[in-house]
User: What shape does this take?
Amino acid sequence: MKRSPILVLLTLSVPAAAAPPAWTVIPAQSRVGFAGTHAGTAFTGSFGQWNAAIRFDPADLGHSSVTVQFATATAKTGDTFRDSALGQEEWFDPTHFPRATFATRTITAAGPNRYVADGVLTIKGKALPVKLPFQLQVNGAAARMEGSTTVDRIAFGLGAKSDPNAQWVSRPIKLTIQVAARR
Amino acid sequence: MSTDRVAAGSAPARPRSRYSAVAIVLHWTIALGILLMVPLGWWMSDAVTDPSQAARVFQAYQLHKSIGLSILVLSMLRLLWRLTHRFPELPQHMPMWEKAAARASHILLYGLILLMPLTGWLYVSAGWNAAMNLPFPAPTIWFGLFQWPHLPGLAEASDATRARTAGAAITVHAWLAWGAVALVALHAAAALKHHLFDRDDVLARMIPGLRPRGPGPEGA
Assistant: This one.
């Protein structure tokens, strides 16, 4: 897993003694998906390649953080039309924006095994605050996380010129994150 | 009888009494395509601005593009076939002006079946929704099977160039649609006139299974 400068900075800024443990994602049991409607039909898709740097300790949320990078070119829905469109400048524009990122700023507890990650989602160079509520089960050295949130595609410039009124593609896009990780 | 057949098969100068099977299949396949495409095209270009029709309009555009590009390939085959194979001559009884009109209308029909798909292809390649004047780079998936490439150079062009190209292409495309209606009506009317009034074999030689009227080389 290649570390971005952001990740190195994040890691360095956390005092070693207080650092929550690092978690490694198990890709086969993890998925970052998205869902919406196109031309009256519901679609779901996912990112084929992404990586996450997770430092998490339920007892030390103040020092916990998650940074995720998505390879925008690997967003696939299984439909030739949609997948071709996603690779265009009008949608994910992977040529100019090969990566989308999500980085938490704060993680707060919201009940038993429930948390809310308050972070910044950056797609096509547009960084916007996103709240991601999630559930987390820690079982010794293994953890399972599930969360979802809905974003407005227009705010990130996705199909903003070709479909500003959501005639074809819904403005709300639901993001679903399922992660299995081990320490 | 057998010598007659051998002679017919080996004499290149002798005209055919019927169109070849390839020409007949291409003719009727393209004809069916045109009959589907004109109403489909008119409906969808009206409905494209109606958000409540989005699902059907999306399917209609993909279908229209798939049929249209198929017509383009079939039309190129047809033109190639026409240029490399013998075809029946016009009946002797036709006056010169009728022969000239028939040739002209056939040249126009060939031009039409090539230019309609080409202007449509140019329009979708420009990736611009002319009806709503916004960029619209919709891929073309041939009958849902594979992505048909768009004409090069336009995807990277400026918005102004794409808008201009799309506007010109769709304007010509729409005029050609009217031309198609007029020309196909004339073509069908002429074929019926030959069949019903002139009572020659002009229509029969393009109908599968029908034998030409009168004593032709194979009709004797």
